[in-house]
Design goal:
Hydrolysis of 6-phosphogluconolactone to 6-phosphogluconate. This protein is an alpha/beta fold. The chain contains five helices and nine strands, in the order βαβββααβββαβαβ. Strand 8, helix 5 and strand 9 form a beta-alpha-beta unit.
């Protein structure tokens, strides 16, 4: 009997000579994904991470093809701190991207900081924000993001999903909280694997030789079960890796040079 859930497609890896070339091609990919989503349903749903990722979106800032008013932006994970705190992913994205473009403030869905003292309530409120955007419009069991942009940690974590943590087995919640993150700050909320694995496109971005060892493990040895390896959306979902040659130097998996 055929499976009701088609197996995930193998990841597509694009490796570029420099971080600048990576950013240029990533921007072009995002613009194409935006056009497809806006043409189909009039909006573009995106989840962003923090770390070095916001800086790598700089080629979008002056791109006239970006329709910022059509973007609905959520956060793949967030640290449970005030919005102006240096650890806040929202604050980082605001500094690097939002403050430089014309995206409406109401299209940026940040955490409710009045709930920082109750992580369960904070996660529930963020899940309700997702339900408001997705369930009422798409009638899906889980949200289907047009695009989720992720980074990777040196231990193979992504979002705030860390190796061997109980959250890796979460199957029902859209948003979960964590009080014992091995990387500070300890209190966070995060999208769960069911959400990541229902996305149309998940793009991991990695640059620099410091990512070489963990990148080769994630891609060439997925059976190791690192969190980033577990992001495997079923068809038509697809995982892409946008990396530079320094990061992919130890990867054995076939690499594609992607040119516009």
């Amino acid at each position: 009997m055929a499976s009701l859930h088609p197996p995930p497609s193998p990841p597509i890896l694009y490796s570029f000579e420099s971080p600048n070339e990576l950013s240029e091609n990533l921007a072009a990919f995002i613009v194409r994904a935006q056009k497809e989503a806006v043409d189909k349903k009039g909006r573009f749903t995106v989840a962003l991470s923090g770390g070095s990722l916001p800086k790598q979106l700089n080629k979008l800032i002056d791109n006239p093809a970006v329709k910022w008013d059509k973007w609905q932006v959520f956060f793949a994970d967030e640290r449970c701190v005030p919005l102006d705190h240096e650890d806040s992913n929202y604050n980082l994205c605001r500094k690097e991207l939002f403050s430089k473009v014309s995206i409406p403030k109401q299209n940026i869905h940040h955490i409710d900081v009045s709930l920082l003292d109750d992580l369960e309530e904070l996660a529930d409120a963020y899940e309700k924000a997702l339900i408001s955007e997705f369930a009422q419009k798409d009638s899906a069991r889980f949200p289907v993001f047009d695009l989720i942009l992720l980074g990777i940690g040196p231990d193979g974590h992504t979002c705030s999903l860390f190796p061997e943590h109980p959250l890796l087995t979460e199957e029902d919640r859209w948003v979960a909280y964590i009080e014992d993150s091995p990387k500070p700050p300890p209190k966070r909320i995060t999208l769960t694997f069911p959400v990541l694995n229902h996305a149309l496109r998940v793009v991991f971005i990695a640059a620099g030789e410091g990512k070489a060892d963990i990148l080769s493990t994630i891609i060439d040895n997925p059976q190791a079960g690192l969190p980033a390896s577990r992001v495997t959306p079923s068809h038509p979902g697809q995982v892409y890796w946008y990396v530079d040659n320094a990061a992919s130097a130890k990867v054995k998996y076939h690499k594609s040079e992607f040119k516009l």
